[in-house]
Write a structure and sequence with these properties.
It contains seven helices and eleven strands. It has helices at about 15-25, 60-70, 90-100, 110-125, 160-170, 180-185, 195-210, and strands at about 5-10, 30-35, 50-55, 80-85, 100-105, 135, 140, 145-150, 155, 215-220, 225. The chain has a five-stranded parallel sheet, with helices on both faces. The relative contact order is 0.12.
């Protein structure tokens, strides 16, 4: 089930005791760890990682923290949410360019962190039970292993791009608007700019092309995106 893939370990840039108590009071099932001690193996992170990076970190910029998380092996595939300061379009652009999956307006509090997690979780059970493996031509997705393969060779994808691809694979030859895709990924469409979808699609396309795979996605002017069926 998709619910089994939800994050249970949260890495945050600010992990003061009052903040941790606030989160634990609302969601005792979540494990909070400070990002600067992420390399420690004790306690062992539970489930997939979700990182909340504040725009102004304690010792460096949040953008630099995001870049480091994307380069480090333990957090390379983590879901990274950038907590914006001003929340304007320039901050959004820079957050995505640095490697964030999405963003939210700050300041970060236990309640808005839990709200973001709950919104993400609520979207998963509503989706139809997926087939264990999906294919379109020689592109194959193993949902259980969270793995994309092209002619048997694995292709690394970030969480958003993988979920986006899985959705398209399950619904080939259907056009989806950017707003629909934001909702499909469990994002809060009041905060996520529709242009962010173009960034996700661009990353997905570049990952496929870099591996030598064809790009099955087609942009439908003024409507959105569709994945065309490819014969095997």
């Amino acid at each position: 089930m998709l619910a089994q893939n939800l994050a249970k370990t949260l890495l945050v840039t600010s992990c003061d005791p009052a903040f941790v108590r606030g989160v634990n009071r609302l969601r005792p099932d979540l494990q909070l760890l400070p990002i600067d001690r992420q390399a420690d193996s004790s306690p062992e992170p539970a489930g997939r990682l979700w990182c909340f990076v504040e725009w102004l970190a304690a010792e460096t910029s949040g953008l630099e923290v995001v870049r480091r998380l994307r380069e480090a092996e333990p957090t390379r595939a983590a879901h990274i949410t950038m907590v914006l300061d001003a929340g304007d379009s320039e901050e959004r652009r820079r957050a995505l360019k640095a490697g964030a999956d999405d963003y939210m307006n700050g300041p970060l509090s236990p309640q808005n962190l839990i709200d973001r997690i709950a919104h993400y979780e609520a979207s998963a059970p509503q989706q139809p039970a997926p087939r264990p493996r999906l294919s379109n031509g020689e592109v194959a997705v193993d949902l259980a292993a969270h793995q994309l393969r092209w002619r048997g060779a694995p292709i690394a994808l970030r969480p958003n791009e993988f979920r986006l691809l899985a959705h398209f694979m399950q619904n080939r030859d259907q056009v989806f608007s950017r707003t629909a895709l934001i909702a499909q990924l469990g994002k809060q469409d009041g905060e996520i700019d529709e242009r962010t979808v173009d960034v996700w699609v661009g990353r997905l396309r570049r990952a496929l092309i870099a591996a030598g795979a064809p790009d099955p996605l087609r942009t439908v002017r003024s409507l959105g995106y569709v994945m065309d069926s490819v014969e095997s």
